[in-house]
Amino acid sequence: MNRELVEQALARWSAPIPPALRADFDAYHRAQSLRFLLLMNLLGQAAYVSYVAADYLVLPDIAHESARARSIFLAITLPLTLAAMRWVRSIHLLDMLLPTLILLATLIWFDLLARSQMPAVATYIYASMIFIVLANLGVRVDFLPALGLSLLISAAILHGVLRLHRDDPQAVMVFVLVYLPMLLFSLFTSWHTTLSGRRAYLHSVLDGMNRQALLQANEKLHALAQTDGLTGIANRRQFDEQAQLFWDKARQTGKPMALLIIDLDHFKAYNDHYGHQAGDDCLVRVARVLSEHMREGDYFAGRYGGEEFAVMLAPAWPALAGAVAQRLTQAVRQLGIAHAHRGDGLSVVTVSIGAALSSDDGVHGVTDLIRCSDALLYEAKRSGRNGYKVAPRPLS
Ligand SMILES: Nc1nc2c(ncn2[C@@H]2O[C@H](COP(=O)(O)OP(=O)(O)OP(=O)(O)O)[C@@H](O)[C@H]2O)c(=O)[nH]1
After folding, report:
1. For the chain, what are the domain ranges?
2. How many angstroms separate the alpha carbon of residue 387 from the centre of ligand 1?
3. Which of 1, 143, 192, 241 is the most buried (most CB within 10 A)?
């Protein structure tokens, strides 16, 4: 979703929901408002039924009829409400359930009042205000349909009042004067509630976008902090973390790990003759060989620093470490990167490797392992380069 669209919608006073977000808006409101709508409907029905007590007090002549009508009303609307809240997916329909039932309740109530001969009817009609207030307070999502239903409820109330005060226009006028502010107040409330609902939703979309962007930026930063900028493989920081993990696992499983330190041979001469940029390209190609060389098993390749790389594998034994070191030296040599100025008779870029194992004598931690690999690398260099040394038994 386009962030600008959401911001534009929020900038408009009516905060319209962009079409692309409507389905999500409905789902959001269903989750937010379903419980409220259910409670409002149940409370409304409970209040409607409880007015039977008032009828027995002030309109005893229609109290029985009222009790029957209200009971029938409840018998229909209660299961209907529960079923609608359970099965109806559309939050718009659920939102309109309460005003619709209130319209029905209004019609029934005025019909009952019209049958009563009690003088209290003239004042009791003012209780009808509760219908319009409740209808509008219960609205969460759609103001316009709520407005339509409010007008219908008001028409039903006015029709009932006119019927009861057929010969008393002054009483009708007083009722209307009292009723109108109540109607406007409750309409304002439902307009404000629905507008706030849209705004809250649009803000939640923006918050979600912000969180997502932050998450992505964090992931990117994390990757950058762990990756070597030149070669794209793991950097020293990540290598150190992984070395400790490899070490811990080796101790837990009792199976040794191997650490291979890989150093380019005569790389200073390469840089001096082919230039620093060519030196960088050479490092990138060697890094690719190391990182792509083995895909299965616990294998980890990183740039250790400068023209030095490191590879870890687990579990590892001297023979396996030797075999991997041999394959790696061979693979780099086979890249065939021309190096005519190394001065030892060879004419391509090669590497020397020192490989130590966690099971070697005197190795008690990652630092010892690195020290041993370094010492073996030094031996490999001294033995003429383009080769490897593995402890405890030199293989070449
Ligand atoms: N192009 C390039 N060169 C680098 C980079 N990091 C280190 N080097 C170079 O690698 C060279 C390493 O040189 P030395 O440590 O003298 O080792 P060597 O010439 O490879 O000799 P031996 O290791 O004994 O075979 C130096 O010239 C560094 O400048 C890098 O990121 N890019």
Report:
1. 3-211, 236-390
2. 18
3. 143
Dist. CA 391–CA 388, nearest whole Å? 10
Using the atom order of ligand 1, give the atom closest to the CA of residue 276.
1
Do residues 298 and 314 make contact, with C-beta atoms less than 8 angstroms apart? yes
Please give the distance, rounded to the nearest whole angstrom, from the Cα atom of residue 338 to the centre of ligand 1: 16
Which of 261, 268, 285 for a ligand 1 pocket mutation test, highest count of atoms within 8 Å of Cβ?
268
Q: pLDDT tens digit string along 184-223?
A: 999 999 999 999 999 999 999 999 999 999 999 999 999 8
CA gap 214, 209 in Å, rounded: 8
Q: What is the ipTM of this complex?
A: 0.97
Which parts of the chain sit beneath pLDDT 50? 393-396
**What pLDDT is recorded for position 393?**
47
- Could you give the C-alpha distances from 4 to 57, 133, 215, 384, 395, in angstroms and in order? 61, 37, 20, 64, 65
Distance of CA 278 from the midpoint of ligand 1 (Å): 12
Which backbone phi and psi does 236 adopt, to 5 degrees? -60, -40
pLDDT for residue 396? 40
Q: What is the predicted pLDDT for the residue at 318?
A: 86
Nearest to 256 by CA among 327, 324, 326, 318: 318
